[in-house]
Give the backbone structure.
Amino acid sequence: MGYRFYQKAPTLSPCPSRLLNTVLAFSDNNTMKVWKAGRKNAIRRFFYCTALIFSIPLSAQNVLRGEISEELEPVYAVFLGIPSPIDNKTAILWALEDSAAAFAGMIYGWNFEYEPGERSRNIPETLDLNSLGAIQFGDRRMSISDTRVENDMFYLSSDYTLSPEQEYRIKAWNASTTVGINTIGYASLQGNPGITDRRMIKFSALEDAVKKAIRSYFRSIVKNRPRAIKGYIALSQFPSFRIAHGQWAATARFRLQMSEIVPFSVY
């Protein structure tokens, strides 16, 4: 399976500003001192100050907005050997990391090749997703607009100011040549076998949502099952994740464009 929601794990070293380092220093020197006094209160203070540090006034035009959530006691921690509950620094880094990936999914999206498979011919179902662009960790165009903690979940709302080239991409994704599809995907709480990256745990459910979006569309336009489908897909907004029926559930809205439908006769 060639699923690549992220291109490369972001690191702190290429961050173009000192804002993030300021926040991390604040978490080490201040918030941790009051950790024992009340974990939730410490988190609220830390993230409130973080929002003040990161927030930059933005115009209402050409701005994408989204909210991401992180579990303060992640259910997959035991599978990956991650300490639980996670600390303040980890929560905000994860949220910023996942927000950057979601913005990239909205702006750049992916190209895909999907093979629905056929049991009678022993052809497995496969999906190859390749990212068409990334938002670098620490990008100056991204800022935090709000944070909150509810029921052991940390929520981070962020804004991303589009460049002219990125604005053009968004307009292309919203063109009449694409279709909008809402789907819900599911995945195991510990992710697919072999996964060692915490980010890919929940995004396995997003991969399932992508498959369902593609299947839903080609079934509406093609009578016979194709051998393969090629095209492009992007997020219309941030996906949301929750635990449902003992699984991760990812609710997502996509913009999709088919580029080629390959019938079995071609192979």
User: Anything to note?
Assistant: The two ends are 20 Å apart (CA to CA). Residues 19-266 form one domain. Strands lie at 63-71, 110-115, 126-131, 142-150, 153-161, 179-188, 228-235, 240-244, 247-262. DSSP finds six helices and nine strands in the chain.
